[in-house]
């Protein structure tokens, strides 16, 4: 019969059916008898649900019979016509119709004293009255002549062994206030009216015999009691709001304190001591959780051993969204529904006539009755999958899984108003190597669940769900209701139910179920044959007994578990039976064959079979056989783990016999080794996790045993391995038990990933929908909507700390190295350092043996040491820094280590530490070091931060530390950011360009944005001068080393006023010393090919064949390599090899840089186009649209103008074009060179303009320079330098690079003309030193020039293959004159 709830207020009381929740019968007392009996106080069911006893205020007990009207039903389900639901199924009426019941008062018993407590035993009712008597009454209302027991005659002592067993209840008015019978302890937990608590037990089997009591000395303020039969616990509520939980010591019989349930000031600062006394305590039907409520209201849910799961006195439960406090829900009575899915509550604050029906399924069935819904871990009831790695929660009609891809996950919004999770004994299912690849993304990827709704046809006759299980791959689930079972595939989204409903209704699953490969293994009772059975069904075949493997079992199976190919059953006769299971491919459907391996009787050790919470077969063992040399033994079933009422007992195989036979015998007989006597491993255990997987890299984690111990956190029983196959120390234990605390309730352990998975209750407020001024506050406002969310936590740092505390540093290193590849391993080290630091630095007492130095030394073993320390420091209060750095080392030394390791971002973080801990001079010194290194490496973001930082130190803003630069991927060179976001044609002829585009003076010389302000507004500040000196020094070094590309990048990224600086340095650093070397260097830096002599001008048999092919191949080769090197760059931007380009090849972090900063908006107009005249020699560039966006896959010349492609070209013209193409460099280099050309023209560095004009081979550029030289007053040294330089280039071209000769010949007349003018004007200065810049430098040495440029040249090779290219250049130059074709192919190679 379905369980019912009753409510008795005044003289009414009612009965409800749980599913559906409807009123069946109510009873109202007549007025006359009502005044005689007084109001109803308490009620008790008879164990067979045929009677109810009710106590009243005036000391009467009323006995009611519940006769059922046969074949009469109050409610029946109605189905539409043609519906598949058959009414002919067995038990149809009982299952789906609400029965019609009557209530008849059978007997009234007057006990002539106020009744304080009523307790049902098997055939008796025990009643405690306020006059200090205990009455034992038969259910038929007779006392059977048994006398009431006077409490003052019961002897009480501290324990049963105590010789001075005297009563302490020697005075009149002591009576029992509350009591509850505990079957597994065979006695009563009692609370007396003076607040003392005790346990009364009969000294012999009959309760009428002599009673003896033990009492707890520590409790003097008890209010109520509840007992947990499965774990043999007694929970006593106290007036201070805490719950004290006791158990009975097996040896002495004394009451032994187990743990305490109490709110902490840390979690509930404003309510923890204002709850009032504990009012009610209720254990759930599966004994896994306990619900507590207080006089002042509120509900809290705790696991067996004290882990808090829910409390409604904090957070959204206690406050409205506007911050005002709610009145907590006051509860006058509560009880759990079937299977613990519902909590039925009578709202003490509710008035009689309020019925609040809500959408949120908080049903108010009558005045003030509330029903809260829960989901619980699937393995509260089916603890067989502790070796798998998924979380599975079950509700009355649905399952929640943490597997499946993110798209399938649904928000469990519709679950219930209050799907507070009752997650105990939870385990998960994710095992074997196949799954490792599915990995963390699916298990941790999102916070919501994959919700599987149970098939309605199955639920109709089998509500509610009792067991559920998931397979290893997380692809199939099986569920068990009242009868039969059903399974579901997450891949096909289909259910399989029994085709024959009679077969389903004839089996009741008793011991749970488990998956073994494709088979479902379950222990059941066959109602037809009245026989206990073990059945195995194949998932892929139809669900029918014809396809099942059935094995008869002697007695009822209480628990079932699977380990590799062994099924383990725990039976009601306290015996354990092991079966081997084997797959046989017979015919179309494979079958599983099962054989009994071994039976072990445990009746000597187990007082009651109901006390066994879980039974697991594991490969864990303790004896010396464990070592790194023999990992194969880890696979075998070595021991049985029994959770006996919270005590974890291990039964190992006995290997003490002769070991020689073991090698000869087959593997089957090895399993038949007998078991030793059991050993207790741990107390207060709720869950056990272990895996049968093997991973040689992570043996520590996979061969460990993980325990969840409620409020005291978790424990791990970790194996210790000798290092490097050394002989183990004789004094070193093989395993060690390490306790650690985590912040979530553990539901599954991911062994290799060192993670614990859990679930957490989240709440959603929706009180804004309602009017606060309404007379009756809505229930939704009172109680928020609850959602269960997935959560996870790292535990590795706790274990490493525990090992270090025990001086097992070597083991900690082994474990840490095995996990070093985990993505969150850096976080583990950080947490480890942070937690030890917080604990020790804030300790009030001095710590005799601090752990921090050990942890610091441990972390230095890993390359992440420097980052770990600084990240930890940045997340810790400044007050603790001195303590931290006393252990890890001076931050100045750590900063220098970062610089040596080229880890500049970490060094920047240390700079912030130094700024707070040292005087400004020290931080400026270190900032300067870092700034210079960042300039060298082209870390432009960091450079900008450093400029700001140095300015802050100078202007006294250093109180606010600058933000640490975001870590960026080191990019070999930066980029001209402002070229990225526009499309301009850079090779059109000058005439087509509006003249306004050339007005670049303003935009280039005075960049805007923050850096621009720096150059203008603050330039008189000494700090800015200091920064400028460093920037100037860097620019000078770049020019001296002819690193024009780096110079351009530097200027663009830092908003450096290049033109102004070049003007000042025109005769010094910005003077070209050796034209030939400069020319070669620029060719190499910009990947610009040396020119080739047109083939038509030389007689060669290869004129149309080999030469052209060579050029084409080399060109393609150079372009394809470019495209490979530039895969990562946005497709719209034409690419050049990454290490050379400062256009667009920007690493991801720089890409995100705000384009509007420094040079963005104003540079947008810098439209750079070649300064060509129409009469210039034909350039392919002028006929091709070389915009950034038009170039395809890096082939910058592929999009040819339509008019051009329409022409019919002769062979020689084609050849000329192909040579032109071969002698042009990449499009980006062209843009860069033109930009630099403009800069140098603006600054008046004419020698550089000449060099760039030579490379571009555009005579217009050089003519322009010559005309400037003729018209302006130019320093004679520059004249002389250019003349000397051009002559040197001419000589070099004659010997080494004939391709330049035609172009130089075009310039000859101009040069001649120039020479004449030079001789006239510059005669007196003709004998100046060849390198005026050096003399100038020597005559005016400056502080920033003290560092010689030579010291940097080695490290600043701008590109990896530069050395080999230059060597190649020298080798081939000798043959160029004789073999121009060889020279041609050589040029392409250079490009």
TrEMBL record:
Q: Where is this region: Disordered?
A: 1321-1391
Q: Which stretches does UniProt call biased (Low complexity)? A: 1348-1358
Q: What is this protein called?
A: Guanine nucleotide exchange factor subunit RIC1
* GO BP terms: intracellular protein transport; retrograde transport, endosome to Golgi
Q: Does the keyword Cytoplasm apply?
A: yes
Q: Which GO terms describe its cellular component?
A: cytosol; Golgi membrane; Ric1-Rgp1 guanyl-nucleotide exchange factor complex
The RIC1 C-terminal alpha solenoid region domain is annotated at 797-955
Q: What is the lineage of its organism?
A: Eukaryota, Metazoa, Chordata, Craniata, Vertebrata
Please describe what this protein does. Answer: The RIC1-RGP1 complex acts as a guanine nucleotide exchange factor (GEF), which activates RAB6A by exchanging bound GDP for free GTP, and may thereby be required for efficient fusion of endosome-derived vesicles with the Golgi compartment. The RIC1-RGP1 complex participates in the recycling of mannose-6-phosphate receptors. Required for phosphorylation and localization of GJA1. Is a regulator of procollagen transport and secretion, and is required for correct cartilage morphogenesis and development of the craniofacial skeleton.
**Name of the gene:** RIC1
Keyword list (alphabetical) reads: Cytoplasm, Guanine-nucleotide releasing factor, Membrane, Phosphoprotein, Repeat, WD repeat
